[in-house]
Amino acid sequence: MTITRRQTFMMALGATVAAAMPFRAFANATEDSVAAFTGGAEMGTEGLTLTAPEIAENGNTVPVEVSAPGAVAILLLATGNPTPDAAIFNFGPLAASQMASTRIRLAKTQNVMAIAKMADGSFVQATQEVKVTIGGCGG
Amino acid sequence: MKTTGLLTAAIAMVATGALAQDDHQLVTNGDIEIVTEAPAPDHVTGLRTIYSGWRFRESSLQEMQMDDFENPAIIAVDKAIVQWSMVDGAEGKSCASCHEDVEQSMVGVRAVYPKWNESAGEVRTLAMQINDCRTENMGAEAWKYDGEDMTGAEALISMQSRGMPVNVAIDGPVADTWKQGEEMYYTRYGQLELSCASCHEENYDNYIRADHLSQGQINGFPAFRLKNDGLVQTHNRFKGCIRDTRAETYSSGSAEFVALELYVASRGNGLSVEAPSVRP
Amino acid sequence: MAENVKPKVRVPKTAAAGEAITLKTLISHPMESGQRKDGDGKLIPRSIINRFTCDFNGQNVIDVTMEPAISTNPYFEFEATVPEAGTFTFTWYDDDGSVYTESQDIAIG
Question: What secondary structure does DSSP assign to B177-235, as a single string?
């Protein structure tokens, strides 16, 4: 496995300093997944609804719903997970709507992101932060 | 829980101002009404109203109990249904051999457990009774008290009382055991010197760190805990709680936990049997 | 081979021709993510269901690429159009090569 220059930079900085860095510095894996899906295209913000709880009492099972009328496919990403990809929903000719619900694992509080590929080839994205609570007496 | 030291320092209680638990209604599968709020029974002087743990959960978790398809516990129940008819043990019997259709024979059973068993002369929990059936009537090996087979069977049997009021006897032959359980409930344990009441009676609806404290009712146990990705048994939860006070905990199936379970179950008299519930 | 893998689906028994219906599917599967470590500290290898499809009378409704972030006992809810009576076929593909299927008929009425 090659170490990228970005990774070397991060390691040199140390975790606490790195935490102050802008979000982009950590988005590497997410950026890769997004790029793989969109080919680097610009993303709009209208027409995709991402529904996720504000607070997930446990990160093992977090219900999430995506809906984008007219979409061909929707990518779902857990941007704070070790690997961000969660699912790609591809809608076939007999899909009555471009909506799908599932349950995902979130390793910690993070932004859940959805990207819809529309029938005309354009892309739309939506993001929501989900707080994952842990600790107390629930163990 | 990594904090040590004084009781007050160990608990970061955050008073939420307005009562945080909601007033949502729980109806399962569109037709089983689950009572999640009731006047506290007479023998619980520290509470005016009792609430099921369901009322303290985020709505995304609450929704999972509204439909058996959504409830992750049902997967274990489906397995238990198959096991109900499986022959096990020297006598060549299955549960069904004597009890036939679980949906008929087990109605109302869970609602009154733990209870006195006259011939054995002891208080029995559901798990104890299941193992007694297995060893004495089926000639089969006892199941691990809080293992998967047991929690699956407990969930299946409890479901047949779903919606029925919890109605555990506290007097007569069980009175001494019940008193023992009550005493335990109010005894402070562990390095953190917490009793069940410290959190579940005096501070329900507050937060302990990130956990929203319930009243610690067990009408929903065995509960599918998301944390365990599986069913968790009452005694297992007691163990966890006591361990969290940094005390040497009792074991599942111990006489102490049987007494505690009897007492805690009776604190929920009037709530509906809700098992198998979904909890964080 | 993952043990005890059982699919479960909820499909209405009937629909009007052309109606949109809601389908729910579940399959019991541990979805071993490849992130967990065993007692000796070794990584438990990934073993998940990596794809789910739903077809009706040979036409596709939905095709889901699944990653380890999907929770244990994968659950999906989605909508399908029912042009005529027929059979829904649900297929789950396991990393280990196993394929699990379930089908359910629906009538027009």
Answer: HHHHHHHHHTS-BTTTTB-HHHHHTTSTTSEETTEE------TT-SEEETTTTEEE-HH
- Contact at CB, C77 and A101, closer than 8 angstroms: yes
pLDDT in tens, B163-212: 999 999 999 999 999 999 999 999 999 999 999 999 999 999 998 888 88
Residues of chain B neighbouring A62 (CB-CB closer than 8 A):
60
Q: CA neighbours within 13 Å on the CB side: how many for A28?
A: 9
- Tell me, yes or no, if C36 comes closer than 8 A to chain B by beta carbon: no
Residue B145: what residue type? Answer: Y
Residue A137 banded pLDDT, cuts 50, 70, 90? low
Contacts of C46 (CB under 8 A, 6+ apart): C32, C33, C34, C68, C95
Mutate to test the interface with C, among A99, A103, A106, A132 (most CBs of C within 10 A): A103
Q: What is the phi-psi region of residue C48: left when phi exceeds 0, alpha when psi lies from -120 to 50, beta otherwise?
A: beta
ipTM for the complex?
Answer: 0.95
Task: Looking at the complex, report in whole angstroms how far the Cα of residue A11 sits from the nearest Cα belonging to chain C.
Answer: 22
The C-alpha atoms of residue B122 and residue B194 are separated, in whole angstroms, by 29
* Mean pLDDT for back-to-back runs of 10 residues, chain C (109 residues): 84 96 96 92 95 97 97 97 97 97 96
**Cβ-based contacts under 8 A for chains A and B:** 53
**What is the nearest CA distance from B167 to chain C, expressed in angstroms?**
34
CB B250 within 8 A of CB B99: no
Question: 3-state class of A118 per DSSP?
Answer: strand
